[in-house]
Amino acid sequence: MAEYVAALDQGTTSSRCMIFNHSGEAVAAHQLEHRQIYPEPGWVEHDALEIWNKTEEVIQGALSKAGIRAEEIVAVGITNQRETTLVWDRRTGQPFCNAIVWQDTRTDNICRILAADGGQDRFRQRTGLPLATYFSGPKIRWILDNVPGVREAAERGDALFGNMDTWLIWKLTGGPGPGAVHVTDVTNASRTLLMDLEKLSWDDEILKVLEIPRSMLPEIRPSSDPDSYGHTLSDGPFGRTIPICGDLGDQQAATVGQVCFDVGEAKNTYGTGCFVLLNTGNNIIHSRHGLVSTVCYRFGKEAPVYALEGSIAITGALVQWLRDSLCIIKNSSDVENLAKTVEDNGGIYFVPAFSGLFAPYWRSEARGLIIGMTRYTTRGHIARASLEATAYQTREVLDAMEADSGIQLKSLKVDGGMTFNDLLMRIQADILGVPVMRPKVAESTALGAAYAAGLAVGFWKSTADLRRNWGVDRTWEPSEDDTLRTANYRRWKKAVSRTFDWMD
Questions:
Q1: pLDDT tops 90 at residue 142
Q2: 123: how many CB neighbours lie within 10 A of its CB?
Q3: Residue 56 CB: number of other CB atoms within 10 A?
Q4: 159-163, 278-282, 484-488: range with highest mean pLDDT
Q5: Is there a contact between 96 and 89 (Cβ–Cβ < 8 Å)?
Q6: Interior CA angle at 394 toward 351 and 283, to 5°?
């Protein structure tokens, strides 16, 4: 009987189930979008029950498309949008409110108050993170302070916090039943602003400052766990009990999927945002140039592997904005052809600081800007500038990584849906001045979750097995014309500076 590993990829805009064989090839995938909820300017929410319902559907859809039986699935891995914060009632399984998405900026005032004592880097030495609206801790505090009944429930021990990995594992293992498992892994925990990076445990002093009861928090486990976090239920969406033993935040999962297991290897995932991770091995490098230090992965009882990360809030989401708000394209894939109608950006620059600026600036008061427009400007120029914005933001992060690590980038591994935009990848190579390589399996996030689960049960014996699965699908070489990476890059930096201090 053939055997497979299933991966659940719960992302910012959709949920997907993918099934992989031993060669790391996807034999089936099913994906469904969920709603993006914008109650107020700067607020972004998701309906966690809708996400759970979509997850059930994509599991059943992937099994049906693969034409395999659930008995052939040996393990389940989970990867998720990080930092998106949910608090629910352990007795009923009902969320107290919508999940607060990582892009949401409502906690800006909380972060300002916390930074009044010790500055933005108040907790950076212990957590690797600056005080920013991005991370989960301030979001938990906001829910405790603003949603009626939550603090009282938390003090009774009835309120549970989790990012979306924790929520899905809890539901898959029977929540709100007595056997439901409340866990997370080290990569997701490292994005909360609440975990000590060295000890890999919740930091009691930070919890006290944020007034978050420890009883709300899940148990922290390895990213690949031979003991498993729990098992799916026989009457659940998989239709049988299967060990859940892989759990990684989406960007760390993509790093594993890209087999970046050596110090100095880097990848960039092009999704709703862009996220560049550089493997720094068993050493924590504290950034001096606007990056964050994070756990890259931990396999079983092995020592944790760390990374430097540059997080960019808006990239693929900008294309969605062109589609849904400006309505200048009908489908996201149309942006490439529209951008090809012009030779260059026509002198305009688009800084998509819709949720402020993340790495390397961490300016929550910044807002989006299009600058340089004249009567010559067309829809094509706006489309082209939107693609260039993704590539320029990536360049800024990689410049910071080189400054922090002393490692000079020789090539960049890329993955995610936007890597199928040939023009964007060509622009990216030109702006960086190094080759850009897309692997045969471009959806590395789900693959990394599958790898973590498969390693735990011996489906793959070692990381050497995973390396043998990796192969290049396409490489983009940089052009000899250096205009994009010199003169135009200087103008981009000038445009970014214009977004600062917009909000009081």
A1: yes
A2: 24
A3: 16
A4: 159-163
A5: yes
A6: 135
Interior angle at CA 491, CA 487 and CA 493, nearest 5: 115
DSSP string spanning 61-91?
HHHHHHT--GGGEEEEEEEE-SS-BEEEETT
Cα separation, 396 vs 419, whole angstroms? 19
Q: How far apart are CA 145 and CA 212, in angstroms?
A: 10
Nearest partner of 143 among 54, 37, 53, 43, judged by Cα: 43
3-state secondary structure 242-298: CEEEEEEEHHHHHHHHCCCCCCCCEEEEECCCEEEEEEEECCCCCCCCCCEEEEEEC
User: Left, alpha or beta for 193 (phi > 0: left; psi -120 to 50: alpha)?
Assistant: left
pTM, rounded to two decimals: 0.86
Q: Which of 429, 438, 428, 326 is nearest to 383 (CA)?
A: 326
User: What pLDDT does 2 receive?
Assistant: 66
Report helix, strand or coil for 453.
helix
Could you tell me how many residues make up the chain?
504
pLDDT tens, residue by residue, 24-81: 999 999 999 999 999 998 899 999 999 999 999 999 999 999 898 888 999 999 999 9
Are the C-beta atoms of residues 84 and 99 closer than 8 Å to each other? yes
Cα 370 to the center of its chain, rounded Å: 26
**189 closest CA partner among 82, 339, 327, 46:** 82
Kindly tell me the sign of the dihedral angle through the C-alpha atoms of 296, 299, 301, 303. negative
| Tokens of residue 83, six digits | 């930092």
What is the Cβ-side half-sphere exposure of residue 467, based on CA atoms within 13 angstroms?
Answer: 7
Q: What is the pLDDT of residue 415?
A: 87
Residue 394 near residue 268, CB atoms below 8 Å: yes
Residue 106, Cβ neighbours under 10 Å: how many? 19
Per the CB < 8 A criterion, the answer to whether 264 and 201 are in contact is no
